[in-house]
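STRUCTURE REQUEST FORM
Protein name: FprA family A-type flavoprotein
Source organism: Methylomonas aurea
Requested output: structure tokens
Priority: standard
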Amino acid sequence: MNGVKLEGDDGTPIAVPLSERVHWVGAFDPNLRIFDIILKTANGTSYNAYVIRGSDGVAVIDTVKEGFAGDFFARLESVAAYSEIKVIVLNHLEPDHTGALPELMRRAPQAQLFISQKAQTMLKGLLKQDTLSFTPVVTGDSVSLGDRSLEFLHTPYLHWPDTQCTYAPEEKMLFSGDVFGCHFCDKRLFNDSVGDFRFSFEYYYAHIMRPFKEYVVRALELIEPLPLTLIAPTHGPILRDRPQHYIQRYRQLSSPALHNELSPNQKTLLIFYISSYGNTRRMAEAIYQGAMQVEDVRVSLYDLEGGEVGPFVDLIEEADGLVLGTPTINGDAVKPIWDLLSSLAVVNLKNKLGGVFGSYGWTGEGVRLVEDRLRGLKLRVPIPGLRVKLIPTDDEILECTAFGLELAQELTGARLSKVINFADLA
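Status: completed
Returned output:
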């Protein structure tokens, strides 16, 4: 397998060297097809854990899912005695990384556990032990293994509050936790030997890291200056070939593209609608015309009936405002609107402007329900949703135009608490 030996002559799992002093001691889970309910895994995943040896002792960085602890301990025992373990580092506390921790601490009771500051209460809740000894660390803290050392980088929300990265400066290796990882199981282990995992890498970023782009950018500011020969994530291939390429890709994925096309003061407002009989469509068109009257707002209008949800999510992520139009059918907003809203869980919408409108026949609950969902997604909804019963009249179309104008003015900070003269909009 391209030089990667995973088992000894007797079939026992053995460690894989990353360097003379660093070994992989993880496990493979090729049959996993769904991870954390939301991620599909076409060929399984790996649980990566590592051992680094210094002149004064050994450090274990992360463990594996509990059901795979046997492989982990066998590999660990092939390169270190439990009495040599001085340090245990947990970069992340999810069960797929901490499943073997209780048994490891039982076998190596002298080892000191290092976790992030934000992991303290989570660790107690995970292991249900009040007497557990550990050392919380932040960026700038380090631990010595003699002629090798470990430095800690505080990288929260990638993708839990507790996450951190660990850097071995003498080896120029970054143990990155979930960052730069993916669910891709290939026993050839290294990125220059495994099959094509680009889809898995991008898919993992989109579902795990994308909602926390601002934290990705902060983490990259810590990581980009580091001299690196290798990135060792907790899932997927070990990145020994061109590790900087994957850092650059994270930078690209985390940087807004649309803002390069806008002037510094320009805002973007997206209007999406679905219409049963053309009434909500007429409202949408009038709202669009009203918003277009504000010079520094770039307004776009989309009919959900004519597009896939996926590309719209990309647009919404970079926009400043989102307006949704839905009829009310059977006391609810219609399915395409809910499909779009459910897809927005993977992006950060906090403090974006939100607005809702729609035509209805009986009671018009759809607008209010969508407003509540926008607030739940952390959007601002400062202007009450606009509802029109059945076919909008000419005066109601003017109300829609005023609604669009107000939303656009809200984006630019030009909205005033005053009554708009509909005659000026006609």
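Reviewer notes: The domain at 263-424 is CATH 3.40.50.360 (Rossmann fold). The chain is about 30% helix and 20% strand.
Form closed.
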